[in-house]
Amino acid sequence: MLRWARDRAREAGLRSVSPGTGAALRLLAATVDAKAVAEIGTGTGVSGIHLLHGMRPDGVLTTVDPEPEHQQFARQAFRASGFASNRARFIPGRALDVLPRLADAGYDLVFCDGDRQEVMDYFAESLRLLRPGGLVVFEGVFANGRTVDSGPQPTEVLRLRELLRAVRETQELVPSLLPVGDGLLCAVKR
Known about the structure:
Elements: H1 2-11, H2 19-31, E1 36-40, H3 46-54, E2 60-65, H4 68-80, E3 88-92, H5 95-98, E4 107-112, H6 119-129, E5 130-139, H7 155-169, E6 173-178, E7 184-189
Parallel strand pairs: 1-2, 1-4, 2-3, 4-5
Antiparallel strand pairs: 5-7, 6-7
Helix pairs in contact: 1-4, 2-3
């Protein structure tokens, strides 16, 4: 089913998480014994399948994406992977419109794989959404090596650098940068 979801992503011009990133997401969800996970950027369901595999059997993935069509692919992929329909809550819309409506401290893990221009806003929302001991995870923070390149960079890379600095300097977080896929920035909320 992962192959099917990856194929749909490729056809739609979306990048999906690498197999290594998926394995890390599954491990991280299991590590925090995740019952409630918020995902920014449903895509075609590749990362969601990994997260659901790592979550508790009664866990619910809340996934947000501006494209309802992508969420339809994810819904099919989740069902074909054997997950009951009540294991995922699909919310179509822009993340920054949806996230403020989600419960404070109601999530064990927040996975951010949306618009890189908005990562600082996702970061602020994640801190509010996470329970103490919860984990925030950002995908793609290496930006294909551009975050460490000294040349002029596009705005999205500057936002990622700002995010890396903010996570490192936030006292209420214990951060780590995992070198899987295109970089996985993880931080536990104290």
